[in-house]
Amino acid sequence: MSARKSILITGAGGLVGPLLATRLLCDSNYSQHTIYLTDLAPPIVPSASSSIPADRLKDVIPIQGDITSPSFVSSLISATLQDGANLSAVFIFHGIMSAGSEANFELSLKVNVDSVRLLLDEIRTQAPGTRVIYSSSQAIYGQPLPAVVTDDVTPTPQSTYGAHKLMMETYINDLHRKGYIEGFVVRFPTISVRPGKPTAAASSFLSGIIREPLAGKECVVPIEDRGFRSYLSSPSTIAENLVRVLEMDSDKLPEHRRSVNFPGISVSVQELLDALEKFGGKEKLGLVKEKRDKGLEKVLRSWPTDFDTSRAVGELGLVVDEGVDGLVGEYVESLKRKE
Amino acid sequence: MSARKSILITGAGGLVGPLLATRLLCDSNYSQHTIYLTDLAPPIVPSASSSIPADRLKDVIPIQGDITSPSFVSSLISATLQDGANLSAVFIFHGIMSAGSEANFELSLKVNVDSVRLLLDEIRTQAPGTRVIYSSSQAIYGQPLPAVVTDDVTPTPQSTYGAHKLMMETYINDLHRKGYIEGFVVRFPTISVRPGKPTAAASSFLSGIIREPLAGKECVVPIEDRGFRSYLSSPSTIAENLVRVLEMDSDKLPEHRRSVNFPGISVSVQELLDALEKFGGKEKLGLVKEKRDKGLEKVLRSWPTDFDTSRAVGELGLVVDEGVDGLVGEYVESLKRKE
What we know:
The structure is a homodimer. Chain A folds into two domains: 5-191 and 233-261, Rossmann fold, CATH 3.40.50.720; 205-231 and 265-305 and 323-338, UDP-galactose 4-epimerase, domain 1 (Alpha-Beta Complex), CATH 3.90.25.10. Helices cover 38% and strands 17% of the residues of chain A. Chain A has eleven helices and twelve strands. Chains A and B meet through helix 5 of A and helix 5 of B.
């Protein structure tokens, strides 16, 4: 009998964790894997659906706890290794988001830096060599930036969130180089259209501008500039690319540079409004209020507006959305499925 | 009566700390300053000389202790604030050097990361807004690199030393942006000719190749390539530039990018050998043994060999050595003074 395999996902009460868990449970390549989900709040466990086989749900194990606690982190990694199981991968998705980090420096330090180090140190001690996929952010970049960011642009964060993410990227690069873990750093575009409620991310309006009016609610856009561009990806493209990194040949990245800017599309506020009108009707536009928030605008304007990810698509085999109508259309379809 | 002012120097048992302390004690601009020196070993206290007024030595206070201990760091910052003194600046010079960090990951993490964070957190708590000058390193760079490194080249360290330095650079940039400290990050060239004994730095031979033969001792060069270039600065130029950063208008650097590559000169092994022959005579060349050390060579070859520091010299007013004969000549003169 072959030993079971484990995959651990942190921050599993968020958006990407459940999305990835669902994607893995639907994939017969991962039928031998137990999926461990952890978060401070109760992790969101995928429910049986047309795509997830019912007998796969017994292999999802939620473990609620505080990832800033050393004893919890130690027991968490131990749990994934029970009965001689092999820990295939850890996805590090937990964190305090951008606006939240800017408002509470100490909390960001504790959650976005110290808990990540705790986790990495437990992994390299208990399960050395495990593949670790760490979600960083385009917030590691800061101004001045070229119109299109390439892999050679120097990260110069202008937010505490970006600075703390960059510190952990640097740590992971070195842990990989030393052979302690098999590290990958992935930097997500802003995920849009993101279901659920507004978040503490400075970019929250980039989902709200579609999601809230379609639900008959107002959305406040904190920037009075319809030409303002953001770099976006749909949730399904993020999930697909995460699985591709999970399966990627480790040598595709240099041993001391483990980061990958995920492919996305550059979209203006006006283009989002046009898509809202197209999918929701003209009257929905009235629910969008443009009201400048200088603090948020400063953070938003420090981020890149477009990337050259031809290497990620060409050499690494990642996929990219086909346009703003695809992003919004995917969300509209998901609403229909829930009805 | 005006309150006294303090300057704290960590790693004061090393090379740069005593050099800077001496420079400050000779400078009438700093006659109101008490100089605190700390290190794990007894700090080196400058002695009276033709250039240091005898009555200034009472204003040097050595505090021996372990900077990885939270209680020590707290008491250290408290000491500099005694009797309402104003802490003008902290120079962070302590650390485990490059080869030492590569050999002992955990020790580098403790000394090069955790103790720096401890110190910065005590400063921002007890003496917010204090000017902090942190010595980073050219080891934050890694291959591939252009022949000449500019301020726009992305740091991609290929050593634990460089990775840990870069993590603290990122932390300091953000502490400055938040207004918690007045941060400056300085990256030294390799200091040559460095007096004293060989160190645990991968670059140690770049001083040894001059210093040891002049003292009648052998020096082993770990790379068999006389065209191999390194980026060097004399000790006196480092000290002068540190004082210039101490006095620099803070707004000369962007609020989220606080690093300055110190000016230096690009010198080949052959040019160092030529200078050794010029100042020491042809027979000294026989004391230099070239014997490849693959591990050290890998670290050395990951570093930059030349920089464009025209901004540091032009806009920031830093100074640069005039050539390899200047570097070696300064050392030869210092030997004569000791005789």
